[in-house]
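WARN no homologs supplied; continuing
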Amino acid sequence: MSTVEPTGTATGDPDTIRATRLAPPPPDDTPTRTIDTGTGSAGADGSGGTAPEDRGRVDVADQVVQKIALGALEETEGVGGTTGTVGRMLGRDDSGGHPRVEATVSGQSTRIDARISVAYPSPVAAVCDRARAHVVRQVEALTGLSVARVDVVVTALTLPGAARPAARELE
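OK structure emitted
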């Protein structure tokens, strides 16, 4: 049986392992980042109390930012989903009509990559500008993070008369 003792030296005894420090626990699989909740000693109601840094911290996972951005894109007029190769060849959206989003949170900011289709004959640049602005507003308002960048890739145009399905439930 092996034992771990924080003594700092290793001995020749094969049944005893001595280490200078214990290994940290394995990381959680969900990437999260910490948000600075502010400083000062005022409580939530401004009457005093525990300082925010003493109350704890707020971690926002990349997946949370993705879902907020996805919701914002689905609310933007003229935005559809991505299409696969077969869907593009047939002129239809085969992804269910919903955008795809990836987000990376780093410190106090986030970067978002979105893949969408645009309803024809909507002006592509204008739809992308509206979508980008709405994503920034929603993510910053709901997470407190700063949005450093939103990259939008238009994968296809959605044909007129193609009904866009109702917004899917965010997982």
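The longest helix spans residues 124-143.
OK
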